[in-house]
Amino acid sequence: MPNSAKRRKPIRGRPRDKDADARILKTALRLVERTGFRSVSMEAIAAEAHVARTTIYRRWPNKATVIMDAFLAEVGPGIAFPELPSALESLRIQMKLLARAFRGRPGLLIRSLLAEAQFDPELKRAFRERWIMKRRAAAQVVIKAGILAGELPAATDPDVLLDALYGGLYYRLLMGTGSLSDAYVEAVWRTVLRSSRLKGELGRPMGSVKR
Amino acid sequence: MPNSAKRRKPIRGRPRDKDADARILKTALRLVERTGFRSVSMEAIAAEAHVARTTIYRRWPNKATVIMDAFLAEVGPGIAFPELPSALESLRIQMKLLARAFRGRPGLLIRSLLAEAQFDPELKRAFRERWIMKRRAAAQVVIKAGILAGELPAATDPDVLLDALYGGLYYRLLMGTGSLSDAYVEAVWRTVLRSSRLKGELGRPMGSVKR
Amino acid sequence: MPNSAKRRKPIRGRPRDKDADARILKTALRLVERTGFRSVSMEAIAAEAHVARTTIYRRWPNKATVIMDAFLAEVGPGIAFPELPSALESLRIQMKLLARAFRGRPGLLIRSLLAEAQFDPELKRAFRERWIMKRRAAAQVVIKAGILAGELPAATDPDVLLDALYGGLYYRLLMGTGSLSDAYVEAVWRTVLRSSRLKGELGRPMGSVKR
Amino acid sequence: MPNSAKRRKPIRGRPRDKDADARILKTALRLVERTGFRSVSMEAIAAEAHVARTTIYRRWPNKATVIMDAFLAEVGPGIAFPELPSALESLRIQMKLLARAFRGRPGLLIRSLLAEAQFDPELKRAFRERWIMKRRAAAQVVIKAGILAGELPAATDPDVLLDALYGGLYYRLLMGTGSLSDAYVEAVWRTVLRSSRLKGELGRPMGSVKR
DNA sequence: ACCTAAGCGAGACGGTACGTCTGGTCTTGGC
DNA sequence: GCCAAGACCAGACGTACCGTCTCGCTTAGGT
C-alpha cells in the first residue's frame, strides 16, 4: 500500500514509475531474507533496486512499512481458506498452510514485522488490520458456517476459538519453543476441537464428546 | 544476571558499587515505562542512574539484557502456581495472574523483550530459558499432577495444552486484538478444557499427541 | 533577462504568460526580504507566485538569476548620476543615493547576490556586467567630465578613485563594521577628495596611476 | 577555535585527539582549494582526514566554522604590520602583503567565508571579530602613531581612512574588476594618501617618507 | 472548425548533503 | 581494579532542495 492510496486524483504530473514499486518490494524481501530485518537499510534497498533513496521515502514512510507491503504482496493471496463441504476441514487445512508459511520466508517476515510493530503503533495497526484481521474475518465466516452446519456447538465463541487454535502457532513462531510441523497442527486441532465437539458423528477414534 | 559471575576473585582494588546494579535496573524499568523500550538509550539510563555508561556496559552486554534483568528482578517471583488440591484450579488461577501482569508494566516489558528477541538470537535464548521455560516447567509439573489425579486425560500432551491455553494470551498481548481480562481467561479455559474433559470420561481414546 | 531572448520566432502555440514574469520577480523579492536569500526555495517562489516550478526553470537557469533579475528590475533605474553643473557634486549625490539603497532592501539583495556570486562564476559575471560595470561606466563619464572641467587633477585614475570612493561602502555593507549613513559618505568624500585636490594646486606631482 | 573553549575543565575522560584537529583543518583547506567551498562536504573532509563525521561535528558546528578555523590557522600570523620607523610605511607594506595574500589561497578563502557569512550571522560575527577587527585594531594603532608623529593630519578619521585604503582591495577581490597587484596598492596609496596630506613637505614624486 | 505546437501545472524522479542520534569501544585520571 | 567522564568510530536516519523529466491540459494562430 504505497502512499498512492492517499492521492485520489493524480490527474496530472509525471506518472509514477510502476516498475520501481515491484523492484523495491522484491529487493526488500531479498535483503530481509539475506541479512535480517534489522540490518536492512533504506540505503541498501535503494541501491539494489536502482532507485533513489528519496523515491522510497516518497512512497513509504519508513522501512517497516516497505517490508510490510513486500510481505503482503508475497503472501497476501497465498493462504486462504479452501472451499470445502466441511467448514472444520477448511480450517484445518488452512492452519497447515499457515504452519508451512511460518516455516519459510513468510515466517521470518511475520516475526520481524510483529516484533517491529511492538515499537511502532502505526505499524501495529497496519499489521493487525491488513494481516491479522483479514484472516480472522475469513476464519469467522468459516466458523459461523460450521456452527450453522452443526459441526460446532452453537455456543462457540469464534474469537476465543481462533486464539486457541492459532495462538500456539504464533507462540512457537516467536518463542522457538517447538516445531511448526503439520503434526503439531494436528495435535492442536485434537486438543482444542475434540471429536466431542464434532457431535460425535465422525469422532470414532477420538472418543465421542457428545453435547 | 550482571557479568559479575565472571570475576572470581576481586582480591584488590576498588570494590564494585553494589548499589549501582539496583539503581540501574530500577532506572531502566522507569524509563521503559515512561518512554518505551526503543527510545530508552543507554545514555539515558546511565544519566538517570548517576552512573557512567561504561559501567553499564561492563556489567551487561547491551540494552536488551539490562532490561531483561530488570524485568526478571521485578516479576520473577511474582507469578507462580499456587499450591492447591486441584491442579487444574492452580493452572486457572495462575493464568489469571499472568493476564493481570500482562495488563500492567510486565506486559509492556514482555512485549518489548519478546519483540527485541526476534532480532537478537542471544536475547531470544535468554528470554526463552529464563522466562518462558521456567514457567512452562512449573506448568508441566502441575499438568502431570493433574493427569495423575485424573483431572486430565492421560493422553494429554502438556506442551500442546500449554500452547493452547497460553498462546491466546501472548497472541492478544502482541496483537492487541482483544482484552486480557479474567473473563477472557475463563473463556479460553472453557474452550480448551471443557467440563467434559474434566470428568475424564472420554480422555482415553485420544492417542498420543506428537510434538 | 528571462530566457525569452532565445526564442526567435514564437510563431504558434500558447502564448507566454506575460504576467507570470512580473509575479515571479515580485514574489522572489518579497520572499528574500522576508526570509533571506538562502532560505528562499524555488518551490516557495513557485507556490507564492501561483506558478509551476518548471515555469520558473523554463525562464531562468537558477535561483540566483531569478533574484538577480528581480533586483535589477527593482533598483535598475533608481540610482543614477544626477545631471549637475559640477561633476563632483553629481558623484557625491549619487554616493548618498547608493548609501541609502544599501540601507534598505537593495542592500540586502546586493549582499546576497554578491555573496552567491562567489560560488557561481556565471552569476559573478552577470552581477559584474549588469550591475557593477553599468554604474562604473557612468561614473567614469562623470569623472572624465570632472577632469575636463578642472575639478579633478588630469592624472586621476578613474578606476582607482572609484574603488577608493565606493570600496568603503561595499566593505561596510558586507562586513557590517559601521554605518552607511550620509555622514559616512561625507567623511569618505573628505578623506579621498580633499578640498586641496579640488583646487588642483597639488595634483601635479602625482604622476600617472597605473592600473 | 574548536568547541573546546567551552569546556573549562575537561578533567577526566578520554583526551581529545589533538592530531585530528590539525588533520581536519589541513584537509579542509586542501579540499576548498581543490573543489571550492561549496562543493566541500563534511563527509569528504571526514573521509580524507580519516576521522568520523561525528568527530567534526563535535568540534565545530558546521562547515563554515571549520573552514574559518582552517583559514585563520593558515594566515593568522602571516599578515602583520611590520615595525618600522614610519607608520605610513608600515601600513603600505602591510597592504602589499595583504594584496599578495588575496592573490593566493587566502584570497579564495576570504572570498568564500565573507560570502558565506552573508547567509550566516554567526559566521559573520566570527569573521568580523576574528579576522577583520583584529587587523583593523592593529591598523588603528599604526595610524594613531602616524598622527602623533605628524605623518598624518590630526583630523584623520582612522575608520574612514582604513575603509578607503582597504575597501578597494576587498572590492576587487569580490568583484573581480581588476588586478590586486602591488602597483594597484601603490595607486590606491597615492590616491588616498596624497602628499598634500603628508603636510606637503615631501610630496615631490612620493619619494622617501622619512620622519 | 479543425489542426498543431508551444506554454503551462502538476508532480515523480535521481541525487547530494545535511545534522542528529545511538550503539558500542577505547582511553585517561582519580579513588 | 573499579569507576566517571567523555572522545571516538560507524552507520542509519529522515529532511530539504536542486534541477530534470514526463505527462496531459490549455490556448491560440494557421489553414
Topology of this protein?
The structure is a homotetramer of 211-residue chains.
Chain A lengths: L17 H18 L6 H8 L3 H7 L3 H13 L11 H17 L1 H13 L3 H28 L9 H18 L6 H11 L19
Helix pairs in contact in A: 1-2, 1-4, 4-6, 4-7, 5-7, 5-8, 5-9, 6-7, 8-9
Chain C binds a DNA duplex (31 and 31 nucleotides) through α2 and α3.
Explain what the structure shows.
The structure is a homotetramer of 211-residue chains. The first copy, chain A, has nine helices and no strands. Chain A is mainly alpha-helical. The first copy, chain A, has two domains: 3-66, Homeodomain-like (Arc Repressor Mutant, subunit A, Orthogonal Bundle), CATH 1.10.10; 76-206, Tetracycline Repressor, domain 2. In chain A, helix 1 (18-35) crosses helix 4. Mean pLDDT of chain A is 87; it is low at 4-8 and 195-211. Chains in contact: A-B, C-D. Chains A and B meet through helix 6, helix 7, helix 8 and helix 9 of A and helix 6, helix 7, helix 8 and helix 9 of B. Chain C binds a DNA duplex (31 and 31 nucleotides) through helix 2 and helix 3.
CATH-derived topology of the largest domain in chain A? Tetracycline Repressor, domain 2
The largest β sheet of chain A comes out as: none
Q: Which CATH first-tier class of the largest domain in chain A would you pick?
A: Mainly Alpha
* First-to-last CA distance of chain A: 46 Å
Q: How many distinct helices of chain A?
A: 9
